[in-house]
Amino acid sequence: MDLIKYRFQEPGLLAAALTHRSAGAGPGAAGEVDNQRLEFLGDAVLDLVISDFLFRHEPRLTEGEMSRIRAGLVCEARLAEVARGLELGRALILGPGEVQGGGRDKASVLADAVEAVLGAVYLDGGLDKARAEAREMWRPYLDRPETWADMLPDYKTRLQEETQRRTLGTPAYELVDTQGPPHARRFLMAISLSGVRLAEAAAGTKKEAEQAAAREALAKLKKEAGQ
Q1: Which one is catalytic: 43, 65, 162, 200?
Q2: In CATH, what class is 11-151?
Q3: Active-site annotation holds for 115
Q4: Strand runs (DSSP E) across 166-207, as ranges?
Q5: Is the pTM of this model over 0.70?
Q6: What tens digit of pLDDT does each residue of 118-143 get?
Q7: Could you report the per-residue pLDDT of 187-227, keeping only the tens digit for each?
Q8: Which option is the CATH number for 155-224: 3.40.50.300, 3.40.1110.10, 3.30.160.20, 3.30.70.890?
Q9: Residues 91/93/96/99 CA torsion (nearest 10 deg)
């Protein structure tokens, strides 16, 4: 299975990583019946690899900026893009219903699978091998930092689009409080709609606080709408 460069000492681990829960397969390598537990492990490995890369290679980034960029680099859409680049979908072991439902190109299925593969590499070869494999998979993104801004979720824009769609008015942002010493400020930002407080959030910069508050406001609107 020439999907990745790493060669498994325990090939059954790769098979387990590619087995979706819908397949109902029996226990494979390391006793895994599907890729759910491997996906959990791979998620942690990928977070560490990306965090380590950003910390070492981009010393000018703040903690908040690194967190936002990492979120963009490991979001479901990015994971699915990586999986499609590896043609992972054709190798997935799926149940009949998942196959009929388009599981081989479903973003959530592909995202879980690529994380599971990284988890399997980690179990088979250790952190250095998993780091090398993840860096190779994410090379198109890590080598082009100028594209990172496009990956970040713009919750303010999404919130404005949502409120316009529902004719709720334009969100108003207000700095409610500033706390902490000059070198470690925390800004509390609130969002109101037609004078009614909708959400608030704190962060290390005003822009990050606005984004965090917009995210909370979006989640609240969706919950109220039953989405």
Answers
A1: 43
A2: mainly alpha
A3: yes
A4: 172-179, 186-193, 196-203
A5: no
A6: 999 999 999 999 999 999 999 999 99
A7: 999 999 999 999 999 988 888 889 889 989 988 988 887 75
A8: 3.30.160.20
A9: -40
